[in-house]
């Protein structure tokens, strides 16, 4: 049979019980007994498979002549080395090539006409020279003849004709040399013009030979998006050198994760990530191979900054799991996994000039104690020197502890 207790006795017992429980709870909340124990810290992360090395795919050719896209494979298509990715037309190059070929034909006609005119002019000069030479021979005959056989006027005319003919002979020789100089000058100018037009013809002909884009290696084509978010389509205009897309190198794939900046101070290369591929659920162990140096937001509306972390897949993993860029995956990033270690909460650590220390309690009084840290995690850190098991440390600095007690 239960004996009912007075209300006052029940109330007093409850108050004593609450008082007894509240004191240790307050002590446990502000202090900790250092002990060797198992320590594991991890965080769940999400990411995707990417190819850090990408081969750019550009519109072929050179210069500024526009190209019109006739054909292009779909975004994300698997292509083999040498397979046609895109084909273009170059109407302006076609027109310029036709004009250049027509101009070369004109230059060839001009060259032939120049040669005909030179031949005609030389023939005329040679004919005049022949006539002058014949007249000179005749004059020489008269000049050596007996003057008694001819009248005095006839002799004077012959002598005058001989002087004139010699002057004319010199003039014709000068004309012949000038004809050669003028012809050579015209030919040099024509050759220069032909070379210029031929160079333009070769440039346009070469441009028309570079209208196809073929895959440099196996991969999945990622088409470049323009400012409207659209990928290249048939009928679009582009210029040589414009980016069409890129072809990831499928022999080198990594898992890319975005880690909040405030959680990255404990990151180290070589840490383990237990990843799992979305869809097929395959598990794959990875090691961190690269940690980004700068943090940036991943969305316009999010103020949180993230740092990219990469873990490379082995060639065997790529082949066995048929990995491709864009595959999603989840993972557990393991910061620490030790069976027996001395560790303290990060909130108990204080830093001055690069030196870490904690407040160790001796007979209830805080003692500033330097410590040397080993592995660090998001919530706890390994202590390699400065503390031993059984020591009691304060989780709150003495000044903050006094303020809390006063309040």
From TrEMBL:
PROSITE patterns found in the cross-reference section: PROKAR_LIPOPROTEIN
Gene Ontology cellular component terms for the protein in this record: efflux pump complex
Keywords in alphabetical order: Coiled coil, Signal
Signal peptide interval: 1-25
Cross-referenced Gene3D superfamilies: 2.40.420.20
Coiled-coil residues: 90-122
Record flagged with keyword Coiled coil: yes
Membrane spanning residue stretches: none
Protein name as catalogued: HlyD family efflux transporter periplasmic adaptor subunit
């Amino acid at each position: 049979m239960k004996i009912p207790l007075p209300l006052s006795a029940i109330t007093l017992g409850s108050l004593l019980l609450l008082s007894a429980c509240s004191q240790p709870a307050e002590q446990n909340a502000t202090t900790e007994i250092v002990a060797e124990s198992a320590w594991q810290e991890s965080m769940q992360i999400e990411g995707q498979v990417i190819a850090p090395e990408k081969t750019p795919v550009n519109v072929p050719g050179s210069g500024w002549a526009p190209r019109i896209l006739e054909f292009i494979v779909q975004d994300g298509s698997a292509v083999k080395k040498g397979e046609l990715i895109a084909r273009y037309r170059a109407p302006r190059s076609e027109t310029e090539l036709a004009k250049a070929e027509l101009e070369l034909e004109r230059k060839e006609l001009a060259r032939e006409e120049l040669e005909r005119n030179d031949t005609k002019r030389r023939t005329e000069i040679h004919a005049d020279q022949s006539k002058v030479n014949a007249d000179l021979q005749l004059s020489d005959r008269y000049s050596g003849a007996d003057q008694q056989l001819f009248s005095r006027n006839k002799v004077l005319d012959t002598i005058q004709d001989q002087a004139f003919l010699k002057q004319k002979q010199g003039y014709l020789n000068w004309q012949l040399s000038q004809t050669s100089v003028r012809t050579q000058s015209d030919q040099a100018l024509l050759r220069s013009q032909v070379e210029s037009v031929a160079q333009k013809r070769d440039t346009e002909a070469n441009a028309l030979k570079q209208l196809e884009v073929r895959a440099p290696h196996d991969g999945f084509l990622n088409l470049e998006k323009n400012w409207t978010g659209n990928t290249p389509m048939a009928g679009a205009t582009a210029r040589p050198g414009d980016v069409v897309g890129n072809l990831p190198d499928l022999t080198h794939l990594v898992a890319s994760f975005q880690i909040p900046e405030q959680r990255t101070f404990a990151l180290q290369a070589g840490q383990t990530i237990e990843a799992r591929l979305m869809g097929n659920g395959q598990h794959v162990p990875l090691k961190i191979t690269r940690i980004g140096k700068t943090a940036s937001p991943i969305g316009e509306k999010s103020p949180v900054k993230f740092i990219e972390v990469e873990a490379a897949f082995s060639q065997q993993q790529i082949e066995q799991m048929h990995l491709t860029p864009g595959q999603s995956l989840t993972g557990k990033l393991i910061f620490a996994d030790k069976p027996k270690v001395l560790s303290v909460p990060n909130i108990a650590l204080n830093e001055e000039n690069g030196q870490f220390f904690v407040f160790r309690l001796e007979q209830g009084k805080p003692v500033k104690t330097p410590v040397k840290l080993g592995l660090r995690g998001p919530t706890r850190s390994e202590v390699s020197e400065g503390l031993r098991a059984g020591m009691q440390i304060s989780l709150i600095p003495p000044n903050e502890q006094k303020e809390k007690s006063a309040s």
